[in-house]
Amino acid sequence: MEGIGLNKNKLFFVGMMLIFAVVFTACESESDPKPSSAVQATKAPVASAPVKADGYKEAPMLTKLVGAGTLKPVIERMPVKEDIMVEKVTEEIGKYGGDWKMPWSGPNDRWAVGQPTEEALFRFNKDGSAVEPNVAKGFDVNKDSTEFTIYLRKGMKWSDGMPFTADDVLFYWEHMLTKETFGKKIYDAYYSVDPVTGEKALAKITKIDDYTFKVVHKYPSVLFLERVAIDNKWFFAPAHFQKTILPEFVGQDKALEIAKKWGFEDVKSFLVATGYYYWVNPQIPTLRAWVAKNDPNSDQFIMERNPYYWKVDSEGNQLPYMDRIVATKVQDPAQRVLGSLAGDYNLLTFDFKDFTVLKENEKKAGFRVMPWTTPTWSSAGIQLNQTTPDPNLRKLFQDIRFREALSVAVDRKEISEIVTNGLGAPVQASVPEGLVGFQKGWSDQWSKFDVNRANQLLDELGLTKRDKNNFRLNADGSDLTITVIEGSTSTATFLELVKKYYQAVGIKMDVKVVDAGTQQELKYSNKIPATTENISLVNVAFRPDTLVPLRVLTPWFGHYGLFTSSNGKEGVKPEGDVALILDYWNKVKSSTSKEEINKWSNEIIKLHQKNQWIIGYAGPTPTLVVASNKMGNIPKDLVFSDEFRSLGHGHPSQFYIKP
């Protein structure tokens, strides 16, 4: 348990770094051409360390292909020498070979392999306080943050050997993103906001040369790179491939014919799969360290090293070290634990509920359990959909008294002990201390177990009528049931406890478990009245999506997000404090300094504190990274968050398997 105490301090340290470092610059660019006098050069290193060796080495499996004449020599497959990215190793120079073995639930679990292998244009640094170049080599930004010149790596190639250039960026922008071919609206990152009128203006993207492009905003966009690093990480696509499938180039009939050959019934779903979830398709070239090699519907999905990967270690060894990622399909989540104990998997993550069984079997099973801190608001809580279609439920969910009643009706101490083994404090959902947006006293809000107070509030709401089972009815006498929809059974114990407490004050609760794909569909169609989905973000200015209704994403704001993303054509119009959140977000986007950004971001957080749309019953717990003792270079002390791409924040291309 001592390690967990240290983990709390670690979260505080990381949080403090975030408080003082909303980033507007990165390290010095070594790019050519040199920035003009009108441009403020920002610091953006091409490499993290110098390469010691004059030449470059490669994995034995690639050496064989070179010897057989089926693959070009390694130096011809990578960018020009000065533009090759040198990745720091966590512990030591690794060894080539072996498989990263993990479980997954099939194609709908695509992020399990997607996040660790993702290669963003810019990525966050270790403590999350800044972005740094990744696919991009560097950038320049002018003084008012309206013009960003971005430099790519000369000679860089897609996994099929075709050149990667600024044309791939422009193609993505002009023919995919702005035309919404893969089902996503234009990301908020690409809009700047007039600080006076609130007018939104779309950025203009232009090509300077084969390895340089410029992004021009009408108004200042101080956090543009941070937002791109979260919203639209790749910001590019293989134009040479997309031209062979997009209806704009091949025609609608031909596109449908191709879609059906791939196993899709319509063009729309085909383009989503190939334009957004592309990494599970072996036909599509990528920039990732590992490339899909077989059908993701197989019992084992395999990704194999990319011969054209553009990173090396400090001794000139082309990365990645591991040959393959092997994801084995599992049906029951319990197989994840059993498989780890049996040695079937060598690197995966768990929720903290599995801490005891994993920790007890560390030595016997030959793995180590490493707690990565998380920026979550709670580890056990409930979201109530503020736009749920049922008019009676919507009226209740939008009434702050109802949310307070459900909060104080539950004994958090019991939730903490049973659900989190006492490691998640019995507190309210709130920004953890040490992170941007922390509000003193928030964690205690409505946290005291008080049945009398709960009943008083429910009576005030007019819920005084009861059915034959003593459950409260709506004021009009109709049934009142809160249906919690979950994508797995992992929250069963928590929900049984909550159900007990809700019933004690006369509130009937049902739990419905569906598969992950169905849960997503229900979410987007606004058919999830309540769920246990958590809030996890390091900084609302970096990633507002779960706190600001910009699109359909988080159940608490439901179709408020659709109203925003459709420009008022669909969804539910935000009102009151939810509308005020959007107003504050526009002020964040139009801010010209970090002080302004912090001010308006804090106002958004305060509205969440005031309204408590997310009710928490236990404080945050870490994510457990479980790694075989034969796996090397696995960081022990990172922040596990979606913004940082979870395990991807550890830079998996430098993970290796010890002989």
From TrEMBL:
Subcellular location as annotated: Cell membrane
Span of domain Solute-binding protein family: 131-534
One Pfam family from the record: SBP_bac_5
Record membrane topology: Lipid-anchor
UniProt cross-references to PROSITE patterns, sorted A to Z: SBP_BACTERIAL_5 (PS01040)
Gene3D superfamilies in the record: Dipeptide-binding Protein, Domain 3, Periplasmic binding protein-like II
SUPFAM superfamilies: Periplasmic binding protein-like II
Main location class: membrane
Protein name: ABC transporter substrate-binding protein
Taxonomic source organism: Paenibacillus germinis
